[in-house]
Amino acid sequence: MPPKTVPTIEKVLALLEALHDKIDSQPKCECSSLRQEVADLKKSLETHLPPPSDTYSAVKKALSDATTYADKSCRAVWIGREEALSPTDTAASDQQALDDLCKELNDDVITQTLAEGSLIHKRHPEVQGDRKNRPLKLKFPTQKIRDHFLTLVRTHHPPTVTKSGGNFIRRDLCPFELELERQARIDAWMLNCKAGSLQYGIRDEKLIKFSGIPRSLPNGYNNRPPRGYQPDKNTTNGSISLDSSKMNQTNTPQSLNNSNHILAPITPMQTRSVTTTAQVKPTTSSGLRV
Known about the structure:
The chain is an alpha+beta fold. The chain has helices at 9-25, 30-45, 52-72, 87-105, 108-115, 143-156, 159-162, 175-195, 231-234, 253-256; strands spanning 75-79, 120-123, 136-139, 168-171, 197-198, 200-203, 206-211, 215-216, 271-275, 288-289.
């Protein structure tokens, strides 16, 4: 056999150089490029990302708000119902009133929901404190059933709700909607005082104007402003400052844009009109309240 030839160092270096040139001429791996781009992006964002504690707090609050709104979407509120002398008597009276209300509505879905025990009621807040009559909250298994219940109440006007003044049932409002409702109630009171009759009311958080023959103001209505009313902010020299020439205008976007109009701070989406008659009470189960 012929003797083996041992490559010299020069030949080995030449082969390595040729191999490096061949590798460098190949296209760069896309995975490597993406890894490098992600690394560069992460490095550039490190100085802009909020601290983990802030991110956790924001996410926790968002999840809490979502849960709260989901719960409210299945609830209705009975406003104005009187309480008994003791919590036990109040709960029994509320259950009896709810049974009577469902009988008056005479609807299979509502009756079945009540029979299954899926219609839960409680006073809110749990501790009465100095409140005379706490709202009665009604919780339904789904939002669809809740909406169906409210529609029945507003169309049937059940005596269990309408027989007592100041009683009405509406959906459970969110905090920002409650603020809108308080302001709408103040606006309705001011407009009615200026007009000298019951022409305005609220439905949920919206200010509405009644159509038809307006009813006269109850005795002492002018001296009973809604909660949250501040004369210094809403009036001038203790009297309501409204331009009487605006009273006969409809609630159009053009008239609401006038800064002198009492409805100016309220967007057109918050106002609408409903048809009533002279026999309709200002506070009914449909949620109309003045």
